[in-house]
Amino acid sequence: MIALIIIVVIIAVIGFMVVGGYNKLVALNQSADQAFADIDVQLKQRQDLIPNLVETVKGYATHERATLDSVTQARAAAAGATSVNDKVQSENMLTAALGRLFAVAEAYPDLKANTNFLELQRELSDIENKLAAARRFFNNAVAEFNAVRRQFPTVLFAGMFGFAADKPFFDVGEGERAAMNAAPPSVKF
Prior knowledge:
There is one protein chain. By secondary structure, the protein is an all-alpha fold. Helix content is 80%, strand content 0%. The protein is built from 7 helices and no strands. It has helices at 2-60, 65-80, 84-105, 109-113, 115-150, 154-157, 173-181. Helix 1 runs parallel beside helix 3. The longest helix is centred in the N-terminal third of the chain and has 59 residues, at 2-60. The protein is rod-shaped.
């Protein structure tokens, strides 16, 4: 009789551990998904500003067609990305293209003084700050999910419930580094 009680208690403890671990994974997964949705909102706002920015620059820097085209193409790629890895890669390209666009703008004093351009630049800077905060929140949620998924005893059953792989982080540092290291554009009149 005592052996049966011990077996039932062990099964109950294991059951509570599995249910508790599963519920924790679901909550952390939901938190990471929500954080990614917040990043998506900021990325969409940034992508919506880019056509206005390109049009404003186009009026002053007509000789910079290749730079304007690269920004437009990078925006289209970013808008079409769906997975975290695709978004990271396309946003890196877009960040680098925007860096080149702002480098071109430095060569045109009239453009730098244009009120519309300055307002768009300010809005873009504001969105970039919000995007950085959203990325930090997302990466924190992903780190917490990945840590719990790997912890014992959760690691024993996470795969059975569809949580077999780590979630990827959203790191756009490479694109920002590429933009800083890019060769300055040549301006010819």
